[in-house]
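User: I'm designing a mutation panel for Bestrophin and want to avoid disrupting the core. Could you give me a predicted structure to guide residue selection? Please restate the sequence first so the numbering is unambiguous.

Assistant: Good idea. Sequence first, for numbering, then the predicted structure tokens:
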Amino acid sequence: MIVRPKTGWFRMLFAWEHSVRNTILAPLGIIFLLSLAALWGYRRSDAFFLCLSPVPFSLIGVALAIFASFRNNACYERYWEGRKQWGVLSCATRDLARYAVTVPSPAAAPSDVRHLVNTLAAFVHVLKHQLRGTDPSRALHEFLGDAHARDVLRRAHRPQYLLTCVQRQLASWRRDARIDDILLAAALAHLDRLSQAAGACERIRTTPVPYPYEVLLHRTTYFYCVLLPFGLVESIGWATPIVTVFIAYAFLALHTIAGELEDPFGQDANDLPLDALSIQIERAMRDTLGDRDLPPAAVPDARYRLD
């Protein structure tokens, strides 16, 4: 995620860092060259065969803008839902950590409480790795120790197994009469929220925007931008390259941004900062235990990127 301070309107015009320019510079360069070719052909020959009427481009442009906005809205909804689910993860894990510290009576052994909190922290980090398709081994060994980490790594669905481990600890406290049935039900409700949030994230991750829908917009956008200079050259003349590149920039940038937001859990510059969110949750739970040696809070780097 790009996190940068607000700038004035003039500086914003030249803010290129982490924009989509690197992705679309090559297509824009090709469209600029086509605009020059259209201008050269129009000036050299009145019968230039690709001098088209601008009227269809107006109608197609409006339809294409509406179509692109629908796709952008769909992709941004996936991005925003992913952020909301990680908000649920943050609240539920902190609630369970506070529950483990304050509710059991007589108080649970500090080692048991710390193990439960470490298991919740491992759950968050393992879910992050699962959504990104990366290796969670280091995080598991750090939070759970070697033996328990190896046991978790053998599982097919590691986040769900970690929630099972938390539930076993809660059930053990119930058997020891440290919590009653009502308090156990309250804790299990928080576990259900964690499970549902993890399932929602997995649904977003494994259900892409329908491929034919994306291909149709991709082809239509590029076809429109390639033919656009030949439709504008007769009416605006020398301004054709500038106007064409500006319009193409708007359409291609929207198309590229939607593609990045489609998978909000990836590692692109504009995806959700799952590393930062995981560390934030871990810090909150360890602070509940009274720890003072907390992991440093994640901050944007020199290029304003927060991972």
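For picking mutation sites, this is relevant: The chain has a mean pLDDT of 88. The CA atoms of residues 94 and 285 lie 6 Å apart.
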